Amino acid sequence: MRDFLKALPKAELHLHIEGTLEPELMMALAERNGVRLPYASVEEVRAAYDFSDLQSFLDLYFQGMSVLRTAQDFEDLAMDYFRRAADEGVVHVELHVDPQAHLARGVELATVMEGLGRARRRAERELDLSTAMILAFLRDRPAEEALDLLERAAPYWETLDAVGLDSAEVGNPPAKFAEAFRRASALGLARVAHAGEEGPPDYIREALDVLDVCRVDHGVRCLEDPTLVARLRDEAMVLTVCPLSNLRLRVVERLEDHPLPAMLEAGLNLTLNSDDPAYFGGGMLDNFLACRRAFGWSREVFLGLASNAIEAAFMSEARRAELRERLAACR
Ligand SMILES: [Zn+2]
Questions:
Q1: Cα(99) to centroid of ligand 1, in Å?
Q2: pTM over 0.85
């Protein structure tokens, strides 16, 4: 089964590029840039990855990215991840990027976008990995800042596929960002948003109604609301579920208790993703393997999930056709 899951062409729709920063690279970049970290070794960084909920994780996440200073750093960060992903049979990665977190510490948008852009072109060329980019707004920051970021990103609109909404969910409902998402829509950008991870089902409904999203990131709390589940099913709304992330952030205590099987049973359009793989105990393959162990899913189930991701991905139709063929070859 491991060989099958590794060979399965996996498209990753929910990944934060800053969340791919492994302790080894964090230490190397800290040294290269003369950034002082409160850790003396890779082991100490790993030990610090002992957060208990979304907020304690976010504190560590923002501290870790302090080592990212130059375009080269961002290129190295993304290439480091793309290589690992390609090794696990990932064929397409859609990266969320959080520019506000970098702007706030004096790193220019151009530095971030140029570094990531170079890595994306290299991934295509060197690894046969297609990529897409999602400009994410930090929802615990003011709405005007999101709008301002979108305008500042004008030189990069062409390279963006969507806008997204991430960071601390509770108390920051989707409607707060109605204007920024309207503007993104006017620019022809797709919209996605984190909703229903720690926040209530109403946030999912709001993301659909107010932000007009084409995908909901996480969405696991939809099960608390049968009317919402019926709507998500009828609209075939894509949910990007992140099992190991939910486990690590204590959305569930054991993976066996995860709502994924119930969501599958309800006929929802599900995909499996890694979210922040450096922090949550594994990449795409680990997430697939963990689901196999916890739920005993058959090949057929995994083929279905992989197919959902390929169909929902931001990619050219030529690439989609190619990946459909590769998926069919796994049957
Ligand atoms: Zn996420």
A1: 15
A2: yes
